Amino acid sequence: MRSMRSLSALLLLALWSACNPAPTTSIPPTYPPATPTFHATPTLAASLPEPGIVYTPAGDEAVVVGMLENQSPSSVSDLRLQIDLLDEAGAVLASQQGEPLLAMLPAGGASPYQVILPASPGAASARAQILSYRTADIEMLPLRVETAEELSPRGSSPSLVGYVTNPGSEPATVIGLAALARDESGRPSSAALASVGPQSLRPGERAPFLIVPAMAAAGQRYEFYAAAIAGPALEDPPVEVVTNEIRRDAQGNPFLLVIMENRSDLPLWASATLSLEQDGAQLAVVDASPASPIAPGEQRALTFWQSAAPPAALSIPAEGAESLQFILRLDPLGTRPVAGRVMDLRLELLRYESTGSRLILGGTITNPHDGRVERPALQATLRDTAGEVLTAGSLSLGEHLALGESASFLLLLPLPRDAEPAMAEYDLKAVGVIP
Predict the structure, then answer these.
(1) How far apart are CA 179 and CA 113, in angstroms?
(2) Model's pTM, two decimal places?
(3) pLDDT tens per residue across all 435 residues of the chain
(4) Residue 418 CA to chain centroid, in angstroms?
(5) Helix (H, G, I), strand (E, B) or coil at 145
(6) What's the rounded Cα separation, in Å, for the pair 6 and 267?
(7) Are 229 and 155 in contact (CB under 8 A)?
(8) Based on the number of CB atoms within 10 Å of its own CB, is 48 exposed (0-12), middle (13-18) or buried (19 or more)?
């Protein structure tokens, strides 16, 4: 009986609610939180033909040389490769990671790579695969590589010299130039990165390059691959060349004396490249940047000559010096103010000796400052009694010196004929930079 009354009450309540609806309020609809959309890095479409394997003369290392071509629609950077040495059955004998010689590749661009692994008996082939990379939303510009000529400078390895040109209508910054050598059968046999200077090029401007192949051999043919990005508008650097002349030492060998002047109000790092041409053909190219900053108003003298030590790539022929042409190019972007304070270092000269055609300077420099100095360097200038420069040079002494730390130096300079070092005045200065 009680349950029947309860059921009747519920029915009456339902009927009343239907006839007297409760007031309603407008409630905005709610949706589940949106799921973030993750855009995966697109798979790089690339061509990796089977690389070549070349063994070092000692036979203890295998050099794997190959090509990577970016066949994707975007530029890529930070490429990492894995190189495997395989036996005849395809089993992996050794592996090593590496990267292409060019740090960035445009769509359709290519770069050689060269990776060294321990020699593995039974290695029959090599395999390359891409491990990682980044897409690069950067405008890349084409460069034109002019014919390079093979050269065997005295006292150094065979080298390749040539020119890279900006054929476009806007400034370009060279980020890499590489050469791939192929043997007589067409297989990759060697690869190397070039030294290019200046790296910033105006429209139509060209810069010399130097490549020293790691393993040069007869019968090789070379392919060149270059990469550049759009650069800023370029202004002439505030460093000017005031002297550029050829002299001869006591044995008749030519050398070049260069004097550049800092015409700004700030100490500057000067970035320069020196190329040597004869009868329209390029013979050599060398980095001509002073090892230490040039002070405001200072005239900095340097000499360049053939020696067994750097710059060994500067091979100056003894004959036909009258037709030699030295071209010094200053890099507008590389020539920049010093970030920090230029500080004098303590210098002790322990050796001052003339061999007739060479002046030998030896000694030590020490950092006396309370803190580390960066890029310690020595500058030496020898003048006659009239104040004219006879010879000069600079020498880098490492990356840094801690408080109280010393470094020894030995600097060889060419002496012009009829020079008398005993009657000359020398100016030696060692400096470093405190950031």
Answers:
(1) 10
(2) 0.74
(3) 444 433 333 333 333 333 344 333 333 333 334 343 333 455 677 778 888 888 876 678 899 999 999 998 889 999 999 999 999 999 999 999 999 999 999 988 999 999 999 988 889 999 999 999 998 888 899 999 987 655 545 445 567 888 999 999 999 999 999 999 888 888 888 899 998 889 999 999 999 888 877 666 666 788 999 999 998 888 899 999 998 888 888 888 888 899 999 999 999 999 998 888 777 677 778 889 999 999 999 999 999 886 534 433 455 655 666 677 888 899 998 999 999 999 999 999 999 999 888 999 999 999 999 999 999 999 999 999 899 999 999 999 999 999 999 999 999 999 998 888 888 899 999 999 999
(4) 40
(5) strand
(6) 101
(7) no
(8) middle
The secondary structure of the chain in percent helix, strand, coil, rounded to multiples of 5, reads: 5, 50, 45
Spell out the domains of the chain, with CATH numbers in brackets: 46-136 (2.60.40.10), 140-230 (2.60.40), 239-337 (2.60.40.10), 341-434 (2.60.40.10)
Distance CA 47, CA 129 (A): 10
H or E element, residue 11? helix 2-19
Quickly tell me which residue has 């060019």 as its tokens: 102
